[in-house]
Amino acid sequence: MNKFVPHTFAINSYQQVNFAITTKCPMRCEHCFEWDNLNLHETFTKDELKLIISKLQAKGLAHLSLSGGEPMVRFNEMLELIRDADRSTEFWVLTSGFNLDLSRAQKLKQAGATGVIVSLDDINAEKHNIFRGHNQAYQFAALAANATNQAGLLLAISVCVLRENANADFLTAHAEASTAMGADFIQWLEPKAEGNYRGKDVILTMEQISEMEKAFVSLNHDARYRHIAPILYHGYYQRRLGCLSAGKSSFYVDSRGMVHSCPFCHSADFQIMDWLNNADKKGKKISACPSY
């Protein structure tokens, strides 16, 4: 709507920025797009994180997703980042669920967070744990979802749909389970050959994509599934409309401070602080999505 109303200052110039605030993570997720940066020395101090967020907000920022690594590792600092930021931006936390109990969820709510996106890549606990590289990953995700609900935060459940799961049976069962966990919406992601998947044969086939798209339309629009939480499937629209936001109205800042068009399209265009501190922005262009 901001494209249709008059305004004289920056309002939502950037719809969404995904900001990895830490390199630290207790997981070893199979698809991790931060794999090369994991558990290195932290790039930014708390004050530097605050400065980056304030400068992004000054440009007009609707939605900031705090990720990592695992952002819950820097929980106290993250609380301060959210609490001290301007209220014009919605803050979401992207997490495996690690260490997100009711007390911490309530603190996030009190600080001003909008919601939490919890990754749940398989409804079978053992398979999810193997995929995430941690024997308590499923337990963390389930407890985090419950805590998020109890604290009054919005809850999204995110799943990276692997080849063996790109079928109606899995997707329906996952949607049912996510809804039962209290999800306000569900997010489907496709595996990309980036991070730990770089150079690996993980991209879904057209037949698998077709199965996902059919399930997506059915679960969102068939009256039989009216009880299912809304499903967001980026690939469905990107294949039809192109990626209209990556590198334009949204981008990704990795845990080393490099700016990319999105977490799944690593372009490493420049350092975020160089861009924010440089009055002359020539040559500081964010790459568009190469896939769509």
Main-sheet strand order equals 7-6-5-4-3-2-1-8-9-10
Count of individual helical segments: 9
| Quaternary status | single chain
Secondary-structure element order, N to C: EHEHEHEHHEHEHEHEEEH
Compute the average pLDDT.
Answer: 93
Tell me what portion of residues adopts beta-strand conformation: 15-25%
Number of strands: 10
Largest sheet: 10 strands, mixed
Specify the CATH homologous superfamily: Aldolase class I
Q: Please indicate the count of domains.
A: 1
Distance between the termini: 24 Å
Helix content: 25-40%
Question: Which structural class do the helices and strands define?
Answer: alpha/beta
CATH hierarchy class name: Alpha Beta
CATH topology description = TIM Barrel
CATH architecture level-2 label = Alpha-Beta Barrel
Q: Regions with pLDDT < 50 over 5+ consecutive residues?
A: none
User: What does the radius of gyration come to?
Assistant: 19 Å
Domain Radical SAM core: 9-237
Cofactor: [4Fe-4S] cluster
InterPro entries: Aldolase_TIM, Radical_SAM_PqqE_MftC-like, rSAM, rSAM_sf
Keywords: Iron, Iron-sulfur, Metal-binding, S-adenosyl-L-methionine
